Structure to design on (773 residues):
C-alpha cells in the first residue's frame, strides 16, 4: 500500500529534489513583523539561505526576500504559512517567474605592492569598485547575481580574504515575462 | 443586561476623553463581552480600577491564570463566542501560555489581555516584566503590544475580529501600564479593514464541481469530519449531505457531536482509539471527504497508509491545513457551511447500499466492548452517563484514558456538547474549561470529567466554582494511575511502570473542604443512583469520585505511527483461572449509529 504521493514527507524517500526558491514577501512595516517571519522559519524547521529586509516605495510596507530550499510540498507549505501571518500582504515565489536578482558584497582582501594591480584587474573584470585601501589591504564592492559574487570571491581567495560581508539576495519580478 | 441596551447606553461615551483603562472596558462592552476570566496585579491595576464602575461585565476571579485561559476556551467552545482573559504582567502573563497554546492547536477564539510594565521600562528587566509578545508569537494567531493609547480601541476591535474569523484562534494584546493611564478621545471603530488579512470563505465553484464529480462516481464514500464543522455551525448541512449521499460519517475527537451518533450512518470516532469499523471503512473507502479536519497524526497513524485507496477531497478554511500532512486530490478552501451548501446541490446520490451493509456487518463483528463484572469500570460510568443524559449535556474532558472512553462510550448527538483538549493534550484542562462553559451555557448541564492526575493540575478552580455556585457535575475517574502512560508502558515498554502510580489525597474531603457536595462510588450498583442524584442537584457543584479498576486499557488502539492492520481490538473475554479453567467473561457492547 506504499503510496509516496500520499505523504507530506516523501522527502524521506529521497525521491523529490530540493530546489532553491527566491520568495518575495511584502509585509506591514510593523513592530515584530520581521520576527514573525524569521521565527516561522525557525519554528517549522525551514532552511534559510539568505534573508533580506528593507523599506519599499510605500513607507508602511517592507519587502523581505528569502532564499530557501525544499521540495515542492515544503515550498507550498512555506508560502501558505507566510500568507497565514496577519502582517503579510503578499507572497510571491519568484522562482516560477522571470526575475532580476542582485546581491552586494564587500571583500577586504590582503594586498602587497606586487599583488595590488592584479587584484584591481580582477575587480575591473567584475566591475567591482575599490572602496577602501591600506598598505596591506584592498576593500572591494561588487554587485551581481549570487553566482557572480561567488566567482569574484573565488578569484580573490588565493590573495587572502581577510573579511567578507554579503547582503543576501534581493529580487524583483521582471516586467517582461516572455523569452528574452 | 441585553446587549442592545448596553450598546445604546454606551454611545454617550463616544467622543469623550478617557484613560486607556476606561477605553478598554468600554471596548469590551461594545464587543458584547459578558464575562471576563481574570486575575489582578500591579501592571494591570489601573484596568481593574476601571472595572469597579462598570458592572455590565461579569469579571470572574480565577485562582490561577492558567485556569482563566482554559475557562475562556471552555466558554468559547460551548457558546461559539470569544472567551476573554485579563491578567497582569510577568508571571500573570506567562501562566496563560499553556492555555494560549491549547487554544492555538484547537482553533479556539480567545482574546488575552495582559498587563505590561510601563513602556520606558520595557527591556530593563523591570519587576514582573516578561516579553509576553515574544513568548506567545508562535502560539497566537496574532498579537499586539499597544504603544499609543490612540491605537487601543482599533487594536481591540482587530483582536476580536482576528480571533473569531477565518480559522479561529487566540490573540494576545499587551497593555503597558503607562499607555493605559494616558487619555484620548474614545471612538470605537465600526468595522475592521486589514489589507493583509482576508480569509477566503466562499469556496471556489470550480473546485466544488470537481469534488461533486468525484463523489458522484464513488461506490464507497466516507465523510471524515472535524471541529471545523462545529466552528462553522454546519451540522445541519453535514447531515443533509450525508443523508442525500447515504454516506457513512466518522468524526475526529473535535468533530464529536457534529453528527448525531443516533443516525445509522454514524460510525463514531476514528483514529488511534476510534471504532474498529470507522478505521477499517476509511482504509477501504474509494472517496474520502474530509470536512473541517486536518489529518492529525492521531487520526492518520502512518500517513502513507491512511485512506490509501481513496481519492481525497479536503474542505477547510485554512489553506495551510491542506496538503500539509496528506496530499489531497481536490482541495476546497472556504467556510465549511458555505461549501457544503454548494456541494449538496451538485451531488447525485449513488447507490451505497452494499457499502452500508458491509459496514453494518463490521459494526456487528467489532463493536466497542468492555468487561462487565464486579469491578467498577470507567467505560460503564460513561456509558450510563450517556444513557441517563441522552446526550443532552455539555461534557468537558481532560486528557488520558477517561478522555478516550468518554469519546467512545458517551452518546454524542449535539454540536458543542463535547469539549476537550485535543491538539495540545493539556492535562488540567477539564475543570476550568467546564467552569467557563458553565458561565456560558445555562440551558444544559455542564459535566466535567477528569482523571486523578489531571484533576489535581487545576484543582484550585474548585474555589471559583463553589464561590459562583455553578451547578456543575464534577466527575473524577480515579484509577490511581496516570492511566494512559501506564497503558503505553504495559503494551509497548514491557510493563516497566515508571512513575505512573499516584499518591492521592482523599478527594471527597478535598471537594468538601472547597464547599462542594461530594460523594464516592466504588461499585457498579451505585453508579446510576449517583449520576441521577448529581444531575438533579442544581444549587451548586456536585463532585463524584468513581474509584475504578486500577489497570484497564483503552481499545481499540492503533499504535502511534502504525496502520489499521496493526489495530488492537478489545481482547476476547476469555480468562484462564488459577485452576486452569477457561472462563468467558460477560462483555457490554456498544455500537455507534
Amino acid at each position: 500500500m506504499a503510496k509516496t504521493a500520499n505523504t507530506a514527507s516523501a522527502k524521506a524517500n529521497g525521491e523529490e529534489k530540493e530546489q532553491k526558491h527566491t520568495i518575495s514577501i511584502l509585509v506591514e512595516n510593523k513592530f515584530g513583523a520581521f520576527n514573525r517571519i524569521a521565527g516561522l522559519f525557525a519554528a517549522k524547521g525551514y532552511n534559510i539561505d539568505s534573508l533580506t529586509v528593507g523599506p519599499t516605495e510605500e513607507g508602511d510596507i517592507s519587502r523581505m526576500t528569502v532564499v530557501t530550499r525544499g521540495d515542492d510540498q515544503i515550498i507550498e507549505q512555506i508560502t501558505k504559512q507566510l500568507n497565514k501571518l496577519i502582517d503579510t500582504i503578499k507572497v510571491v515565489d519568484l522562482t516560477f517567474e522571470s526575475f532580476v536578482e542582485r546581491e552586494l558584497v564587500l571583500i577586504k582582501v590582503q594586498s602587497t605592492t606586487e599583488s595590488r594591480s592584479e587584484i584591481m584587474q580582477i575587480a575591473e573584470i567584475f566591475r567591482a569598485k575599490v572602496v577602501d585601501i591600506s598598505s596591506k589591504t584592498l576593500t572591494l564592492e561588487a554587485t551581481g547575481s549570487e553566482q557572480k559574487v561567488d566567482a569574484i570571491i573565488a578569484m580573490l581567495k588565493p590573495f587572502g580574504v581577510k573579511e567578507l560581508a554579503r547582503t543576501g539576495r534581493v529580487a524583483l519580478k521582471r516586467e517582461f515575462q516572455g523569452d528574452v | 443586561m441585553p446587549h442592545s441596551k448596553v450598546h445604546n447606553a454606551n454611545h454617550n461615551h463616544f467622543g469623550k476623553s478617557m484613560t486607556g483603562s476606561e477605553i478598554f472596558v468600554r471596548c469590551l462592552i461594545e464587543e458584547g463581552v459578558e464575562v471576563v476570566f481574570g486575575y489582578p496585579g500591579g501592571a494591570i491595576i489601573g484596568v481593574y480600577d476601571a472595572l469597579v464602575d462598570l458592572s455590565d461585565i461579569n469579571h470572574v476571579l480565577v485562582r490561577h491564570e492558567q485556569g482563566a485561559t482554559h475557562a475562556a476556551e471552555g466558554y468559547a467552545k460551548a457558546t461559539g463566542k470569544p472567551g476573554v482573559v485579563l491578567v497582569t504582567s510577568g508571571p500573570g502573563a506567562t501562566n496563560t501560555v499553556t492555555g494560549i497554546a491549547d487554544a492555538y492547536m484547537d482553533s479556539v477564539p480567545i482574546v488575552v489581555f495582559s498587563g505590561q510594565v510601563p513602556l520606558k521600562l520595557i527591556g530593563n528587566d523591570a519587576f514582573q516584566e516578561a516579553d509576553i509578545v515574544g513568548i506567545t508569537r508562535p502560539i497566537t494567531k496574532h498579537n499586539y503590544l499597544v504603544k499609543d493609547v490612540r491605537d487601543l480601541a482599533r487594536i481591540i476591535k482587530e483582536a476580536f475580529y482576528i480571533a473569531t474569523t477565518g480559522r479561529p484562534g487566540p490573540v494576545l494584546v499587551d497593555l503597558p501600564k503607562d499607555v493605559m493611564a494616558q487619555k484620548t478621545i474614545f471612538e470605537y471603530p465600526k468595522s475592521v479593514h486589514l489589507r493583509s488579512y482576508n480569509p477566503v470563505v466562499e469556496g471556489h465553484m470550480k473546485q466544488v464541481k470537481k469534488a461533486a464529480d468525484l463523489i458522484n462516481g464513488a461506490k464507497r464514500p466516507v465523510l471524515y469530519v472535524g471541529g471545523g464543522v462545529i466552528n462553522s455551525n454546519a451540522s445541519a448541512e453535514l447531515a443533509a449531505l450525508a443523508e442525500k449521499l447515504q454516506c457513512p460519517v466518522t468524526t475526529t475527537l473535535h468533530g464529536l457531536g457534529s453528527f448525531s451518533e443516533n443516525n445509522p450512518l454514524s460510525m463514531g470516532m476514528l483514529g488511534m482509539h476510534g471504532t474498529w469499523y470507522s478505521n477499517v471503512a476509511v482504509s477501504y473507502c474509494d472517496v474520502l471527504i474530509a470536512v473541517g479536519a486536518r489529518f492529525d497524526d492521531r487520526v492518520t497513524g502512518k500517513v502513507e497508509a491512511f485512506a490509501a485507496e481513496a481519492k481525497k477531497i479536503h474542505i477547510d478554511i485554512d489553506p495551510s491545513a491542506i496538503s500539509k500532512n496528506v496530499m489531497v486530490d481536490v482541495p476546497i478552501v472556504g467556510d465549511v457551511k458555505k461549501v457544503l451548501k454548494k456541494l449538496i446541490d451538485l451531488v447525485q446520490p449513488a447507490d451505497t447500499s452494499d457499502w452500508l451493509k458491509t459496514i453494518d456487518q463490521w459494526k456487528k463483528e467489532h463493536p466497542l466492548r468492555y468487561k462487565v463484572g464486579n469491578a467498577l469500570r470507567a467505560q460503564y460510568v460513561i456509558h450510563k452517563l450517556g444513557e441517563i443524559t441522552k446526550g443532552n449535556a455539555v461534557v468537558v474532558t481532560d486528557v488520558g484514558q477517561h478522555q478516550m472512553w468518554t469519546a467512545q462510550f458517551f452518546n454524542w448527538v449535539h454540536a458543542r456538547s463535547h469539549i476537550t483538549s485535543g491538539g495540545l493534550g493539556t492535562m488540567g484542562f477539564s475543570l476550568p474549561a467546564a467552569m467557563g462553559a458553565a458561565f456560558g451555557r445555562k440551558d444544559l448541564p455542564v459535566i466535567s470529567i477528569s482523571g486523578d492526575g489531571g484533576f489535581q493540575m487545576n484543582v484550585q478552580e474548585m474555589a471559583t466554582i463553589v464561590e459562583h455556585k455553578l451547578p456543575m457535575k464534577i466527575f473524577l475517574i480515579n484509577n490511581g494511575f496516570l492511566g494512559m502512560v501506564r497503558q503505553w508502558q504495559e503494551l509497548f515498554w514491557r510493563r516497566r511502570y515508571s512513575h505512573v502510580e499516584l499518591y492521592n489525597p482523599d478527594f471527597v474531603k478535598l471537594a468538601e473542604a472547597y464547599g462542594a457536595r461530594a460523594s464516592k462510588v466504588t461499585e457498579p450498583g451505585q453508579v446510576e443512583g449517583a449520576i441521577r442524584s448529581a444531575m438533579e442537584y442544581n444549587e451548586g457543584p456536585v463532585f463524584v469520585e468513581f474509584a475504578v479498576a486500577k489497570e484497564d486499557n483503552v481499545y481499540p488502539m492503533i499504535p502511534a505511527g502504525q496502520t489499521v492492520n496493526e489495530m488492537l481490538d478489545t481482547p476476547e473475554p476469555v480468562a484462564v483461572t488459577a485452576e486452569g479453567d477457561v472462563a468467558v467473561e460477560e462483555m457490554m457492547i456498544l455500537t455507534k449509529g
Observations:
- The helical segments of chain A are 33-44, 72-84, 116-125, 146-156.
- Residues 72-84 of chain A form the longest helix (13 residues).
- Confidence is low (pLDDT under 50) at residues 1-15 of chain A.
- Residues 33 and 87 of chain A are 6 Å apart (CA to CA).
